[in-house]
Amino acid sequence: MRFLALDVKILPVPAQRGLSGPFFYGLLCCVAFNVLGGVKNVLADEFPSLRRQADIVRLVRQDCGSCHGMTLAGGLGPALLPALLHDKPAESLVATILYGRPGTPMPPWGDFLSENEARWIVDKLQKGFPDEP
Predict the structure, then answer these.
(1) Quick one: DSSP state of residue 20?
(2) Domain residue spans of the chain
(3) 126 vs 6, which has greater pLDDT?
(4) Is residue 97 packed enough to be buried (19+ CB in 10 Å), middle (13-18) or exposed (0-12)?
(5) Do 11 and 4 form a contact (C-beta atoms < 8 A)?
(6) Which among 116, 117, 93 is positioned nearest to 106, based on CA atoms?
(7) pLDDT > 70: percent of the chain
(8) Other C-beta atoms lying within 10 Å of the C-beta of residue 125
(9) N or C: which end of the chain has fewer CB within 10 A?
(10) Residues 26-85 pLDDT 10s
(11) Does residue 86 have a pLDDT over 50?
(12) Of all helices (H) and strands (E), which one includes residue 124?
């Protein structure tokens, strides 16, 4: 039995006819390419692109700012400043962005933002939200 090292795992390479040699390695490369391509797509979705970040900053400053204040220091909605948000659970803030707060003026933004984009917003709000570009 031969072995092939792949990402720290050792996989046995069957020596049976049809599953050895170039065919097997070609198949293995195709599978690895698809798996790694999928990982790349997941990682790419982790953070918004720079262009999308600029769009989100504009959305938060303009649309969210219409209730939370243009400087996010409060208005109809509460202030969204780091000093007030740093100890709030991020998951709760993400849920509020995506699903809104029923019975309040806070609307859901899940039709416009992905979960990862909402996480990015929360991260920035808790650290100090950037100005519009």
Answers:
(1) S
(2) 2-46, 50-127
(3) 126
(4) buried
(5) yes
(6) 93
(7) 66
(8) 23
(9) N
(10) 544 444 444 444 433 344 457 899 999 999 999 999 999 999 999 999 999 999 999 999
(11) yes
(12) helix 115-127
What is the model's pLDDT at position 17? 54
Q: Structure tokens of 83?
A: 């000093």
Amino acid code (one letter) for 14: P
CA–CA separation, 109 and 77 (whole Å): 15
pLDDT beyond 70 at 114 = yes
Phi, psi dihedral angles at 12 (to 5 degrees)? -70, 140
Question: Using CA atoms, how far apart are residues 112 and 98, in angstroms rounded to an integer?
Answer: 9
Q: Would you call 12 helix, strand, or coil by DSSP?
A: strand
Q: Kindly indicate whether the domain formed by 50-127 is annotated with CATH number 3.40.50.1820.
A: no
Side chain identity at 88, as an amino acid letter? K
